[in-house]
């Protein structure tokens, strides 16, 4: 991790369970997912990376063998 990388600490999901916003440490407000993807693409987030889906980009946790820090398992906001 570089000093400029920050960590996602909470997530907000829609009624289908899809992550729509994330809380990045040091921020007081939730960050929309599309903005968080852009931050990840620039290397600004720790332990996640941006991937391209069929119709949009999204975030994926870096593989590390632990499920507790997967985005879907983070505390909900």
pLDDT averaged over residues? 93
Fraction in beta strands: 25-35%
Biggest sheet, spatial arrangement of strands: 1-2-3
Order of helices and strands: EEEHEE
Number of helices: 1
What portion of residues is helical? 10-25%
What does this 3D model show about the protein?
- The structure is a single chain.
- With about 80 residues, the protein is mainly beta.
- The protein contains one helix and five strands.
- The strands form two sheets. The protein has a three-stranded antiparallel β-sheet with strand order 1-2-3. Strands 4-5 form a two-stranded antiparallel ribbon.
In short:
The protein is mainly beta.
List keywords for this structure.
31% strand, 5 strands, mainly beta, globular, three-stranded antiparallel sheet, 1 helix, 12% helix, two-stranded antiparallel sheet, 77 residues
Topology:
Layout: E1 8-13, E2 19-24, E3 31-32, H1 33-41, E4 48-52, E5 57-61
Antiparallel strand pairs: 1-2, 2-3, 4-5
């Amino acid at each position: 991790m570089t000093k400029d990388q920050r960590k996602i600490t909470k997530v907000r999901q829609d009624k289908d369970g899809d992550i729509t916003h994330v809380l990045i440490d040091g921020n007081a407000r939730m960050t929309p997912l599309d903005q968080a993807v852009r931050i990840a693409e620039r290397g600004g987030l720790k332990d996640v990376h941006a991937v391209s889906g069929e119709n949009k980009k999204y975030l994926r946790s870096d593989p590390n063998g632990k499920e507790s820090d997967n985005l879907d398992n983070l505390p909900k906001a």
